[in-house]
Amino acid sequence: MSDRARTILDNVFGYTDFRGQQEAIIEQLEQGDDALVLMPTGGGKSLCYQIPALLRPGTAIVISPLIALMQDQVDGLNLLGVRAAALHSGIPYGEQDQIQEDLVRGEYDLIYVSPERLLTHRMLELLDHIQVALFAIDEAHCVSQWGHDFRPEYLQLSILHERYPNVPRIALTATADQRTREEIAERLNLSGARFFISSFDRPNIFYRLAQKRNAKKQLLDFILKDHAGQSGIVYCLSRRKVDELAAWLQNQGVAALPYHAGLDTETRSRHQHQFQTTDNLVMVATIAFGMGVDKPDVRFVAHMDMPRSIEAYYQETGRAGRDGLAATAWLVYGLQDVIILGQMLVQSGMNQAMQQLERQRLTAMLGFCEVTGCRREALLGYFGELREGKCGNCDLCVEPVSTWDATEAARKALSNVYRTGQRFGVNHLVDVLLGKTNKRVKELGHQSVSTFGVGKELSQPIWRSVYRQLVARGYVTVTSESHGGLLLTEKCRQLLRGEETLELRRDRYEVHEKITVGPTPQLNGENAELWEDLRALRMKLARERDVPPFQVFSDATLRGMMARMPETPDQLLEVSGVGQFKLEQYGEAFLGVLTRSVQENP
After folding, report:
1. Which of 85, 206, 446, 546 has minimal CB crowding within 10 Å?
2. Which pTM was predicted?
């Protein structure tokens, strides 16, 4: 590793040490070799190509799938004094022409483009006339046809290796299992690249999941109790639900905005800008909002419906706590989510092989919801990463769930599925077990089956829980073709024969205690007053420059100032996140606030 890399890290980006495998990755690219990087969101992927871009001669070309993501990166680099620009459809034609002229003159360190723009004849011709320092392919999992964010344009990026064989390439992603990693390497011609696989763990995120009971009230209680006045993202499955929930939260006094593909472009852009530039806004959204979010101080990500896979859940929850401070991943779920997602899958037009894979992923996600041990252990295990012992930073470690011997109940539930014809949903099956003689039971003649009324010892919610967990454990499957009907699987034979026993978890709808986790110090008295003063100054400077507050300084950097209480510019430079360029821009103002605090509270 050259001394220049450490100098850039310190002077430009304001950090004294590299994290994890950053140093080795930068060295790989600096030497002109290829790399495939798997690093969790917030792990510092961008530095892995931004520093080599400043080390190597020429201009780095960064391929990114979303305009918002490109623009955030460019704005942040410009605030650091780095010469960066983006070429995309949101930029006026005259300005695009000027950027391209400046690019040919070698006036940029980095240029961000979409895969569609990169593959145009004009752009490739332009690259033929400049010195390319490196190619960085961000969100590389988009190349995988088996992945959850497939983008067909990514398949054509293999042209980079063919057309520019001597230019190093780096492919980066935060979410890729073994199969997806292999596909990325194959389709991008990166078989000779060195793989850098970091831990999937996000230790600052607290994972909390519960069954749905009154989802809106559960969400409001969570926000007001744990994250009042903080930024967060709430995901819903449908646009209608997004609009309704955003309006409801506003009526409850929570600052919230909707975001989905049904809104016009201007409204979506305005809402995203408000979210980026405000400290206390909740964005209620479909998953159309996400990949372009480069906001480090999102304190929670909440799911009102179960995600379609663990990969999707991991990527979406990874948008919380990118600054390394404490954050929460909150989720409520129910069997109805599985039914709706299954129906969406049938209507998707996917081939049968893809549908089968997606069903397996959906079942794995439900299984993750229903675990009885450590959430983090189960999550990391899914990605092939073994963890020993409890994490102490998830709901099941803090408040272990109780279990019960459900062997006999499960046998009754499975027999009931068989006796009624393996085509009915949970509501009807539970009615039969409870011996209800309603209209539907009579019409179907199910008051005459042997399982009618055999389950009166348990309540309706418990029977619903039994069926949901039987689906999660793979004893029955949900058939979307029959609107949520249950079908027995081969796995249930041993249980029905009495050859195995079964422990199930007791449902828990709420976590009653407020849980404070992670490296966030408690603020009170003068501490809290200084914190608000620093945030107010940051907001003022951000508004003057029309940039998100975190691009001035992150929360972690403000807390670093409070911990060190620097009195001179040199001391302020020692705070992580303060580089030479930002010191010159903002140092005097922030030192003024810190000095005044010391004078007022000696």
Report:
1. 546
2. 0.80
